Each structure stands twice: as structure tokens, then as C-alpha cells.
Predict the structure of Acyl-CoA N-acyltransferase.
Amino acid sequence: MPIRPPAPSEEPAMAALLATAFFEESLFGQTIHPYRHAHPADVKIFWSEKVRKAWSTPNQRLLVATTTLPENGSEEKITGVAIWERQGDDEGRKVVEREWVGVDPQAFPPLPPTNNAISPTKRTILTDAYPFFSHFWHGSRAQNWYLEILAVHPDHAGQGFGRELVTWGLDRARKEGVHASVVASEGADAFYLKCGFGAVVGNCTVGVGNPLLGVGGGDVLFMVP
């Protein structure tokens, strides 16, 4: 199962996959995009923005899983997408940033000006909620590889593509001797534990006044170096 960095030309396919995978998910689907059924195509705008931001962030790495379509010979199809981020202020992060190869923003076509599927008040919900869960990444856990996004197209679920995308970051973390972390979507804890994350250390949706209160999932898992 090939795991590789994507090409800028694959951004539309990645955004479409992410929109499909998270369409009914509690946070990115139901909470952030409450008008998605009326404007399903607009959900891809959100994911295009996130993918493009990852390409422009020196300590983040975009990865795709692919398969070859039998009916089209050697043509590849993207089956999964991951965004890993090297967090911390140590030399390991500096190395990752020095290895970064940027993408010219002009490589991407302009996006539609308005995302009618999104709730304007929920667009920044993760940033607004950060004070309620940032403590999980303090101390020795601050130096870590964080799995910001993982998605596999529903047509290819259960075929090992997600595990390969997770393994990439866990292997990097082990090599550097740092933690790895992820915030799991609802029902995904068992998958991450099977992949190599060691334990659930808390949840991002709890706390009086937390904007994420009532959102499904949110368990924080770490792999200890």
C-alpha cells in the first residue's frame, strides 16, 4: 500500500475524499457544517483550505494512501489522507522545518468565495476550545508528532490504508524518541489503540463553557516514546 506525499494537482481529490469521509462526523460534519445537506459541494471548500494550509506549514506533513484501479491499468486512486504535525520547540521540530519543501500558492485554482454549508460561529470552534484541552500537551508531551487529520474513503474502509497512514507518524515519533498523539473521532479509539497508541489520557469536549461540549468523540490518545 503506497504511502507518499501528494502532488498539488491532487488537492481537489483530497478535499473531495475528506468531505465525503467527514460528512456526517460529529465535529467537522454536523457541528461545523450544519447546512451541508443543502450545500454539499461547499464542504469541499473547507477541506481545500485545510489541505492548502498544511502544505504551507513547515512543521506539517501531508500524506496520501493510494491504490491502483484494475480497470485503468496503472492509474492511481487516492484512498486516504493524513496530516501529521511535528509539535514542540526542540531540535526535532527544527529538523522537520528545515526539510520542508513549500508549494507555490499559485499552483492552486481560486476557491469559491463563500462556503454556504458552514456555520460562521463554528468555523473557529477548535481554536476557541483550545484552552480547555491544551494541558494534555504540556511537559514532555509537548514534543510529539500529532495526527491532526486522518480519513479513508468509505469505499476503502477496513483495507489497511488508515493503519499505514498512522504508522508513518508513529514510526517517526519512535525514531525521534518523542510522543505521538491524536484526538479521536467518535468510535475511533479502538482503531488507534490497535495501531499503536498506548492509552486514552483525557477528552477535549469536557469542561464548563467548552465550545465542544456535546460534540461526539474527542478522546486524546498518546503513544509514549
In short: Residues 3-102+117-223 form a domain with the Aminopeptidase fold (CATH 3.40.630.30). Residues 15 and 47 are 5 Å apart (CA to CA). Strands lie at 3-4, 60-68, 76-87, 144-152, 179-184, 199-203, 219-223.
